[in-house]
Amino acid sequence: MVRLALLGLIGGLIQLSVVSQVTVFGVPADLTPLLVASVGFIAGSMTGAVFGFCLGLFIDVSLYQTLGVSSLVFTAIGYGAGRIRELRDPAHGLAPVAIGAAATAIAAVGFTLLQFLLGVDAPVSLLLLRELLLTVVLNTLLALPVYAIIRRALLPFLPEDPRRRRRRAYTTGGLSPISRA
């Protein structure tokens, strides 16, 4: 729990102070949906939802935004990434990339939709769509390194998943029961 709190605090501070100031392809990267999706994908749906809520609340308070918008979106992202892990158990090495891209797209569309529903006046044009697509592309490129860092930080402290245990070799003198005639 302490490790998750430190991870959220450090990740939120890095996002707010460094990453949001650097632009690539004309848009800044957004590490927060990647953090939430990675935690949900590694630790499960409930942990991902709670982590998403807390990180979203931290971001809202830090930026003086409408409270609850980021929390709502990140809670859904963390829960969804955790449910994908619990239901499918994707073993492919690029699954975090797909989940990171989906989390970024859901976050971008969710923020836009919630701001529209709350009545925030903002110009809507093709530049908004361009920015959303470029942010998804940039975050897709960053998804695997972020996932690797989160996995390295959390995996030693999580209980072993029984679905991922390796089967032990038979100790019948080197022959398996299938090869006996």
From TrEMBL:
InterPro entries, per the entry: Cell_shape_determining_MreD
NCBIfam families attached to this UniProt entry: shape_MreD
Source organism superkingdom: Bacteria
Name under which the protein is recorded: Rod shape-determining protein MreD
Location, primary (coarse class): membrane
One Pfam family of this chain: MreD
The encoding gene: mreD
Regions crossing the membrane: 6-27, 34-58, 64-82, 94-120, 132-158
Any one of the GO CC terms: plasma membrane
Recorded family membership: Belongs to the MreD family.
A Gene Ontology biological process term: regulation of cell shape
Subcellular location: Cell membrane
Keywords: Cell membrane, Cell shape, Membrane, Transmembrane, Transmembrane helix
Membrane-topology descriptor: Multi-pass membrane protein
